[in-house]
Design brief:
Elements (H helix, E strand, L loop, with lengths): L7 E4 L5 H11 L4 E5 L4 H9 L5 E4 L6 H15 L4 E4 L14 H29 L2 E6 L12 H20 L5 E8 L5 H14 L3 H12 L8 H12 L10 E4 L7
Parallel strand pairs: 1-2, 1-4, 2-3, 4-5, 5-6, 6-7
Helix pairs in contact: 1-2, 1-8, 3-4, 4-5, 6-7
The structure holds nicotinamide-adenine-dinucleotide (NAD).
Length: about 260
């Protein structure tokens, strides 16, 4: 168990994919976890509990500011503090701008960007009172570069990289840091949908679609593993990262080096 033992983390969207791996990785450090997200919550809770830490669940819809406020309040009430905030919940929708529905635009901006403002807005006073906190925003390579058919996603992810810098600067003289992690392709349910769509569109197998998708952007030709992203988050939570402030740290198989 590490120096992080006993701290409290909220990982939004932690019932699946990267968020679940983050929650399990942090739990293995002895950190208490508030789980959030839809879908298979019982399996996520069980996996985190198996790490030997306290865990609870709040089903806030991250597109709803009032529910986000309650999520932060309930986390602080249940565990006594909120020390580590991982803004991870996210969705995707792909279409050209002229075909992009207003509903899809609004939902992506709300869940992938505005939610991180609301969680931070409500969590920062408690962090400031303890002069310690870590805010980790799961952005994307799409916070650094664009891709076609992802207008809302790319706008939201560039936005969250900007929000990261402002929160880092406003708290630069405190024990609170704020950084963004920018993953390339990670094989989660969010990406599997894009693999399925490609397999159907091109009439190729699932395996071939995966290879085509990842090779197109990532020179390594390999997916990033959710556990690798969790290891980076744990580093950012630790004392060696206390002067990493406002970074947008890519882990992308070389995608953005090109
Ligand atoms: P995922 O679909 O596996 O998980 C998304 C999580 O967010 C789930 O727990 C889901 O229930 C939750 N969620 C969705 N809408 C929500 C809402 N309104 N309220 C509360 N929870 C909600 O996706 P993932 O790939 O693990 O993505 C996690 C984050 O990582 C996202 O922000 C995504 O943009 C980012 N990301 C993913 C990749 C990738 O290749 N998978 C790459 C870069 C960045």
């Amino acid at each position: 168990m590490s120096h992080l033992k006993g701290k409290v983390a909220l990982v939004t969207g932690s019932t699946s994919g990267i968020g679940l791996a983050m929650a399990i990785g942090l739990a293995k450090q002895g950190i208490k976890i508030m789980v959030n997200g839809f879908g298979e919550k019982d399996a996520a809770i069980a996996a985190i509990k198996a790490c030997g830490v306290e865990v609870d669940y709040h089903g806030a819809d991250m597109s709803k500011p009032a529910e986000i406020e309650d999520l932060i309040k309930q986390t602080e009430k249940r565990f006594g503090s909120l020390d580590i905030l991982v803004n991870n919940a996210g969705i995707q929708h792909t279409a050209n701008v002229e075909d992009f529905s207003a509903d899809s635009w609004e939902s992506i901006i709300a869940i992938n960007l505005s939610s991180a403002f609301y969680t931070s807005h409500h969590a920062l006073p408690g962090m400031k009172s303890r002069n310690w906190g870590r805010i980790i925003n799961i952005a994307s390579v799409h916070g650094l570069v664009g891709s076609i058919q992802k207008a809302a996603y790319v706008a939201a992810k560039h936005g969250i990289v900007g929000l990261t810098k402002v929160i880092a600067l406003e708290n630069a003289k405190t024990g609170i840091t704020c950084n963004a992690i920018c993953p390339g392709w990670v094989l989660t349910p969010l990406v599997q949908k894009q693999v399925d769509a490609r397999a159907e569109r091109e009439g190729i197998s699932n395996e071939a679609a995966k290879k085509a998708l990842v090779s197109e952007k990532q020179p390594s030709g390999e997916f990033v593993a959710p556990e690798q992203l969790a290891a980076l988050a744990i580093f950012l939570c630790g004392p060696d990262a206390s002067e990493v402030r406002g970074a947008a740290w890519n882990m992308d198989g070389g995608w953005t080096a090109q």
